[in-house]
Amino acid sequence: MSKFCGHCGSTLADNATFCPNCGAPATEQAAPQQQFSQPAFQQPGIGSMPVAKKGLSKGAKLGIIIACGAVAVGLIIWLIIALVGGGYEKPIKNYIKGLENQDVSTFTDALTNGTGSTSILGGMSESSAASTYTSKLQSMISKYGEDFKINYKILEKINLGKSGTLGLYDDAYTLRIEFTVTGSKRENVVTKTVNVYKANGKWFMGSSISL
Fold it and tell me: What span, in angstroms and rounded, lies between the C-alpha atoms of 176 and 156?
């Protein structure tokens, strides 16, 4: 068995008392072992590859689809209402808004059929509606003061339909409406019957009303 220097690791003769390389006293020592470094154990998938993210559950996906569908349906309904003129209440609202805001064009829109003149489809001409606006506004200010406000509630509605108007209109309603008018001079509640018609996609009032 070979001897090795315990100081520098050189090979020594069996009878050597001193190391010929470094001069240290000869002492027997096992041959130096080569050291190997072993990489630390690494769990697969950590540090080498990104961890896959968990996707949405089926329930969550279904909820998102339902929510998107509801939004789409609401948008479609809104577009339909906008395209058909806002419904049979629109001329009532425009009549009130035109008086409250002293806006002749909005008031006129409530009473005209969209053709610009009186026709077989009814409605006022724009000039007649403008003249009516002037007299109605003066009457409201005289009765209630310039700060008057109008609220309304539909008590009854009867759908006349196309057949109920001899086919002259696309649709029509007879409405019984309770109007509440308040102002600095007085407050009043009055019930009126109002006919509204739809022709060529536009709703309008059959006549003006006194409040």
Answer: 5
